[in-house]
Amino acid sequence: MKLRLLIFLLFVIVLSCGQKGPYKLLEVGPQTLRSDSFEKRFIRSSKFNQNKVFSSDQIKAVLEEKEVEKMLFTAEGYDLNLHLNKEIKENLEFEKKKRLTHSKGPLFKKLVPDSFSVSDEEIKAFHDDLNREIKVAHILVEQQSLADSLYELIKKGESFASLAANFSTDFTTASDSGIIQNYFTRGRFEMDFESAAFDLEKGDVSKPVETIYGYHIIKLLDSRERQTAPLSEMTAGLRKTLLQTKEQEYIQKTLHRLHQKYNLTIDEQYFDDISRAYREELGKKEVLLKQIDTEILSEPFIQWQGGGWTVQAFVHQYNSMPVYTKSALKGRVKFKDFCIRMATPELMYREALRLGLDKQDPYRREIQSIRDHLVGEKCREELIYSRIVLTDREMESYYNDNFEKFEFFTKDRAMELIKNQLVSDKARALESSVISDLKAKYKIRFYDKNISRMAKHLTKRKTG
After folding, report:
1. Which of 94, 100, 258, 365 has the most beta carbons within 10 angstroms of its beta carbon?
2. SS3 state at 52
């Protein structure tokens, strides 16, 4: 009996020693720091880059210096119910959508294959087409039935130019007989569009071709030869280009299917009203709400299954976006394309939720980490920065005592710098007292054996 018990205990010990899952490094009150979270952050730090060998003392010092303080503020933030703060909830909702739908997130991993393949025949065909450039005209419509009808009319002798002028939704080419102005080679447009265009003989018209923009009828106007390097010199580059093109085409088609699945619609009758209220000055892009007729503000503008934006909601969304993500709201084609791109993350988020991707452990841990960070920073703001009082008299006194530091600045700029300096000084002094109080309130526990294990793991990772 004793022998069996001994064997069982040895078995349990061996199993526990061989565990490969995340393990605890540090606890601060109810907050826990796991090995995977710490490693993810630490490998991006300068200390990881500067060292090849790591000791338990080094890792513990990093935990004391970088992690304990953050976890103290996070623990106190939850105790103060700051996770219920409206601003934190809004920021967290934004991060949830962002993390689920970005190009390396769980939705893309679910919908897009890890890799694509390109055959030698495809590379040769692509190279052959690079020796040729073409000029085309096209008619673009949204409904396949209309595209089929127009194609039949063209076969019966109707003028391509006239049909383009009357029916094409590509307003940049419709008024010019549907002609795309410049010659082009492979790689400029969507693969399906190009494949159909390059298969045509001069004067021929294609059957309707579907892309994410709608249905195209293409007419080849001209074709001419051009010189390129031999295939042997371009194979590697062409393979890379084709792989990238295939991946992007697959992603675009996947998103297009989402648009159809969730019935994405845009009421274009409001384009002109919004465009007239659009302003672009000093690098700032915005829509002036007061310039739009109040009667249409509550009208549906962009809609999808289960949600959408009124005209007013769209303007609010647009104005709150970072300027580098905005397109100028000019030209109906570009305006519509931007609206589609703007609504796409909303559809992706709904699809991710439908697939239950928000229930996966890696995502849930990531969101919890973001929530902890937001709560901790809000707590720091509440306990330190909101308590700082800075008077004009203090700032003037500092300016007069240190005038030589600011003699090359304007008075306004000098006072701005002084304010930042004094706030920083006061924050450091107050922070020391607050942290001392929090350390007295919350128990701090280091898992020394696991810290030693982490040190060995990082050393092995660095040295191989």
Report:
1. 100
2. coil
* C-alpha closest to that of 75 among 354, 327, 380: 380
Amino acid found at 254: T
3-state DSSP helix/strand/coil % of the chain, to nearest 5: 65, 15, 25
- DSSP β-bridge partners for residue 285: 280
Residue 298's closest CA among 278, 277, 313? 313
Q: How far apart are CA 357 and CA 100, in angstroms?
A: 8
Write the pLDDT tens digit of every residue in 200-209.
999 999 999 9
Mapping DSSP to helix (H, G, I), strand (E, B) and coil, where does residue 384 land?
Answer: coil
Q: Are 168 and 194 in contact (CB under 8 A)?
A: no
Distance CA 26, CA 69 (A): 12
Collapse the DSSP code of 451 into the 3-class scheme (helix H, G, I; strand E, B; otherwise coil) and give the result.
helix
310 vs 299: CA distance, rounded Å: 5
The two three-digit tokens of residue 463, written as one number: 């040295």
> Could you please report the per-residue DSSP string of 321-375?
S-GGG-----SHHHHHHHHHHHHHHHHHHHHHHHTTGGGSHHHHHHHHHHHHHHH
| Number of CB atoms found within 10 A of residue 302's CB | 22
Q: Which of 103, 55, 97 is nearest to 458 (CA)?
A: 55
Residue 223 CA from chain centroid, whole number: 40
Cα–Cα distance, 232 to 124 (Å, whole number): 10
220 SS3 class: strand
Q: Is 32 left (phi over 0), alpha (psi -120 to 50) or beta?
A: beta
In the chain the domains, ranked by start, together with CATH numbers, are 21-79+384-464 (no CATH), 81-118+241-358 (no CATH), 132-226 (3.10.50.40)
pLDDT digits (tens, 9 = 90+) for 58-114: 999 999 998 999 999 999 999 999 999 999 998 999 899 999 998 888 999 999 998
> For residue 346, how many C-alpha atoms fall within 13 Å in the half-sphere facing its CB?
19
Which amino acid is it at 327? S
Given a contact cutoff of 8 angstroms between Cβ atoms, the answer to whether 442 and 32 are in contact is no
- Token pair listed for 58: 């080094």
- For residues 446 and 59, give the distance between their C-alpha atoms in angstroms, rounded to a whole number: 11
Rg from Cα positions in the chain: 31
Sort 59 into a burial class: Cβ within 10 Å, 0-12 / 13-18 / 19+.
buried
Where helices occur in 224-265 by DSSP H, the ranges are 231-261
Residue among 360, 368, 460, 359 at smallest CA distance from 37: 368
As a whole number of angstroms, the distance between CA 70 and CA 377 comes to: 8
Q: How confident is the model at residue 10 (pLDDT cuts 50, 70, 90)?
A: very low
**Nearby residues of 122 by Cβ (< 8 Å), 6 or more positions away:** 242
Distance CA 376, CA 82 (A): 9
